[in-house]
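quick one, 432 residues, struct below
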Amino acid sequence: MIHSHIHFRNFTEETSCWLKIPLSGNPTTGKLSVKYHKLRLIQLIAAHSNRVNLSRTILIIMSLMLVLISRNTNAQEIDFKGQVSGWVVTNPDKATHIGLRYIPDLMVGTYFGDSMIDTEISFNMYGSVQFQHNQDSILTYSDFSPYRIWLRYSASQYEVRAGLQKINFGSAMLLRALMWFDSIDPRDPLQLTDGVYGVLGRYYFLNNANIWLWVLHGNDRNRGWEIFISDKDKPEFGGRVQIPLYTGEIALTYHHRNIDVTKSPLDQILIGQSSVPENRIGLDGKWDLEVGVWFEGVFIHRDLAYAALNYQRQTNIGMDYTFNLGNGLNAITEYFTLHLSDQAFGPGEGVSMTALSLNYPVGLLDDLTVMFYYEWDNKGWYRFLSWQRTYDNWSFYLMGFWNPDQYQLYQSSIENNLYAGKGIQLLIVFNH
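---
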């Protein structure tokens, strides 16, 4: 479903259950009761702080782009496109939300022999209004922000890209353990996600192996399943090695960053700590057998005074298959776990979920998608149904949802989210 970025009041209201976590690695030293929902613990983050100033970056990239256009006599490519989307979401028990978004996108590239320099400049402009049912109040919100701003140099086997960009990888599709630098919701038809500021380099070997290296800086929003936001004043860095194996591929990924615990709801517990190192290691693989199979595993360590959050483990296993029924019924299923502990491989608190997605092309213009999520710890069902009709430039989506009253899926969701309970959404998209 489309993320409308509504500003709600009482962002961190009390949640649904009590968890007792040891104040130290020794469980006999006393307990701290923290009221939260298990899945929401990994999403408790303070309000967004100020983003890095982009005016100088935009000016430099646009200047380089104009120089390339005006002075280079080699082959050039200029492409301007955009996407307009409007939506109405109604939840009888909560509110009706109406929104409009426009994402213009300019891409310019020029060739230098076998290499190319290109740039993308894109903005996210939207406004929304929400009518509260059974209340005499209307909430409005609007925003104009950079969406993608990057400059890239590429050749046949390598590329280097710098700026505000999308970085994602991994094998899973529904509940991604390797969702490190994005927050893509698989139910969102537009697959929108904020980018990250940094430099990414990739080298592609002739045997389909590839190496990624990156350095990030100035990012202060939490992403994926993160508990803490990054310290935007300190650089992040990491890399990924992906190699072919049998009928698929396997990859090892590493990332280091410093987390800013002062902007966490747990800052009163972590007194005396501000910027804390965090290291992540990920392993994933995917193979095409009689069915498609994949796995993802993530191990995270941080050196906190609050030992119960020092280790975070995430796993995903999944498979997909297209049944020979009518036009072809595609089925995807995944099982996901996340655990927090004071020991690397010891017991801890966490969540486990199963997801199932079914997609059936009704005809040349229509698609039908059904998704189910089940949270085993709280026995909560999430149900989603989408019908899509697509023309040349137009797409129409009619979606229905039936979720628990406290909605806990994905980073952009908060407890009193409009998608809690039952409702429908109409989304209209025009691409030019």
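The helical segments are 38-41, 55-71.
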